[in-house]
Amino acid sequence: AGSFQDAGVIQCAYNLNFPLHTVPAISAQCPAWSAFSVSSPAVVLETVKQATPFYTVPPKAEDRPEAVVVRLYEAHGSTVVTWLQTSLPVKEAMLCDLLERPAAKEPLPLEQQGMRLSFTPFHVLSVLLVLRQ
């Protein structure tokens, strides 16, 4: 009933197409943990991957093996502001293009709520996270 946004169609589609798989492990009590969260149901965190190093001579600042790229998109056809939170030790965050090159001169502010991201309808954003060693 209602719109596809209200019905949770995006989440149901991901659950169907990418089901969680259980792996046997030693019986130990572990606290629940999540590396990332997004504050808006309209934004989908699609990909988390190690940043691709640029093999250039001389090396540039983008050549960071300690970096992770997070790719997100707006799935409801709306304009939305969301917070990306992570439990990873982030030293610096910046928007990047699809080739993982920094898209802005200034890094994203790291706030207590996380990183503030603005989306237009169906917009894709990539965030380069440089982790502390």
Automatic annotation (TrEMBL):
<dbReference type="Pfam" id="PF17677">
    <property type="entry name" value="Glyco_hydro38C2"/>
</dbReference>
<dbReference type="GO" id="GO:0009313">
    <property type="term" value="P:oligosaccharide catabolic process"/>
</dbReference>
<dbReference type="GO" id="GO:0030246">
    <property type="term" value="F:carbohydrate binding"/>
</dbReference>
<feature type="domain" description="Glycosyl hydrolases family 38 C-terminal">
    <location>
        <begin position="43"/>
        <end position="124"/>
    </location>
</feature>
<protein>
    <submittedName>
        <fullName>MA2C1 mannosidase</fullName>
    </submittedName>
</protein>
<dbReference type="InterPro" id="IPR011013">
    <property type="entry name" value="Gal_mutarotase_sf_dom"/>
</dbReference>
<dbReference type="GO" id="GO:0004559">
    <property type="term" value="F:alpha-mannosidase activity"/>
</dbReference>
<dbReference type="InterPro" id="IPR041147">
    <property type="entry name" value="GH38_C"/>
</dbReference>
